[in-house]
Amino acid sequence: MNEFRADLHCHSTCSDGTLSPTEIVCLASKINLKGLSITDHDTIGAYPEALAAAETYQIPLISGAEFSAVYDQTNIHILAYSFSLDSQIIHDFCDNHCLRRTSRNRAILDLLTSHGMPIGEEELKTCTPHSIIGRPHIALLMVKKGYVSSLQQAFHLYIGEGKPCYHPGTKVSVEETIDIIHQANGLAIIAHPHLIQNVKVVRDLIELDFDGLEGYYARFNNNQNERWLKIAARKKWLITGGSDFHGDIKPNLPLGASWVNDEVFSILLNHFKKNQTSSQ
Q: What are the structural domains, with CATH classification, of the chain?
């Protein structure tokens, strides 16, 4: 394919993906993507490696992260783009999320132990070299130890939302997350609104101070995207898009399954370059 395609939503081994940042950039080059953002959960740890790889493969790369938040007891994910990678505000926010995740993981491990499926915290730390550890890593260990037969079963029976070994952890509000992103001069985007089931929450979210929404997501078709594209157009918001690629964890979502065109990517890339220049 020769058309311009930039995938703005993918995950590396720095959170819950199965490819390293370098491997993702290499794959992006192989499938002829023209732009990329790695949006790991609550961390920007991929970027030192990813920037070097992007220079090698000559693929424009913009900063990104996917932050976990809550609104009216509903879990919401927020994509942050084009902030300076030197932003202390973003680094501190990521550090706080790491502490929050550690506390939550301990609570989930305690619940698993009480249900006869012990996993030690040290075991969990050794399953990934990175600091952002979440439920997918716990699920992988559950499979490895023979407690369940698959990642899907781990979530469906035990650690999915509402299941007996689920723990919500300490939450950060959507409003606070938007504010942090804006303080860092980044752009705040509603991630995969297609997946939000609560109609009232959707109505409330689109009245908040977002800069855009993810109108093109995963393998949703044009009819499924249309509602969100109309909302973004009415709000005069940016419309972003990406695959939500995780590698082997979500094999049905290949890198480049959804993307944005040159016009959208140029806006984000220019914003990123200005932030990087002003921070030097």
A: 6-93+174-278 (3.20.20.140)
